[in-house]
Design goal:
It holds the Pfam family Glyco_hydro_4C. About 50% of the residues lie in helices and about 15% in strands. It has about 450 residues and is α/β, with parallel strands linked by helices. The N and C termini lie far apart (about 55 Å).
Amino acid sequence: MTQKYAVTVAGGGSTFTPGIVLMLLKESSRFPIRKIMLYDNDPGRQKVIAEACGIYLRENAPEIEFGYTDDPREAFTEIDFVLAHIRVGKYAMREKDEKIPLKYGVVGQETCGPGGIAYGMRSIGGVLEILDYMEAYSPEAWMLNYSNPAAIVAEATHRLRPKSKILNICDMPIDLEEKMAGIAGLKSRKEMQVGYYGLNHFGWWHQIYDKAGNDLMPVIRAYIAENGFPVSAEQHVDDSWAHTFKMAREVYAIDPETIPNTYLKYYLFPYEIAAGLDPEYTRANEVIDGREKKIFSVCREIIEKGTSSGSGFEADAHATYIVDLARAIAENTLERFLLIVPNEGAIENFERSAMVEIPCIVGKNGYEKICQGRIPRFQKGMMEQQVSVEKLVVDAWIEGSYQKLWQALTLSKTVPSAAVAKIILDEFIQANQGYWPELT
Ligand code: NAD
Ligand code: G6P
Ligand code: MN
């Protein structure tokens, strides 16, 4: 009999949970599931999502055991995988992460610049807590983490829980690779073999081949030089995302040898981006008025009607990479993924202890890194600055150091001066009371 897996979704109340649960069902021939458990520390929020998922599962896969809880023991006992997508502080705090810097003309973004730093200071404790629960109740389990800010979370978990079975992964390169496969006339990103180096939300493709070994970079570069990335139908569809994809053209122009991750726009055009944002209505507001409203109203409708049929509940087609990754571990598929891992020489001329995003081969015993060689001066310079920001945030969290956090903010390429960094920091401290460690 083939093995069936038990999965806990941490952050059960997330807007992404229904899409993930349906995706797990859809992919169950590749990755058989015996149990899905949702865990969240906000039981009220989770209940809506979970009750609706429960109805869907009873109607479509009654053989799968399903439950939801805010009790860690119940959530993490006898499971094989934790899929972690928590947002410590939820959208209310994301809004502050974005709006406080913007008041001072500084990029307001959930993972880049000051917003990501503030979010990191909240997220580290939340992710460590879940990792500890998993290890206490299911020591053999693996955590697939895509809770943000992934760069800071990865640095913190690597430093504080170096032996933990956690893989940190981001879906942005996956979406961009799908787009590039389309540009090159391929059906899927899986038909490409890529070389990529960087940090999370801060990286570059430097090689892209098809299965026959043909170089796809020329055709992709020509397209991006002209158009940026295309917008696709399923994911990252709002106007603000369309802007991001288009702007890849300007980001690309700075180094036409490589293809940039779209998040680099925040670091390379911080003032232009900030000037174009509405300080009263940021991405958090878009998500609250868009995705959150939609998902919660669909869930409430399912609960009221007592059935999910005709609800328009949809599998997150784009999230199949999570099943690919879980299968890689469970079935030793040795598939390649971009993971956020300790460098240790994989990028030859870059700090050994940095957490870098590079291609890895994943199997039963974890990952093997694929060396990316030497990187150019421009990328190296940018990465050195940014990795120092990320390391200083983790230092600040561990030591409770105001000074280190001020340094982190000052060093961010998105912040114009130490004075502005200090103003933002002091406001963040007020806003994050109860979420951040006390800083002295
Ligand atoms: P959301 O606010 O809808 O959901 C997050 C859930 O986490 C909430 O229900 C909240 O109560 C819960 N939570 C917060 N702290 C917790 C804790 N300590 N323990 C358990 N549960 C906790 O947010 P969302 O927009 O659905 O995003 C969820 C997360 O996924 C975010 O971190 C987001 O940045 C991340 N994300 C990452 C990627 C990626 O590629 N890396 C892609 C999409 C989303
Ligand atoms: C991409 C990134 C994620 C990020 C998400 C934000 O998928 O890779 O790390 O969380 O975008 O999307 P949102 O719709 O919440 O702004
Ligand atoms: Mn990401």
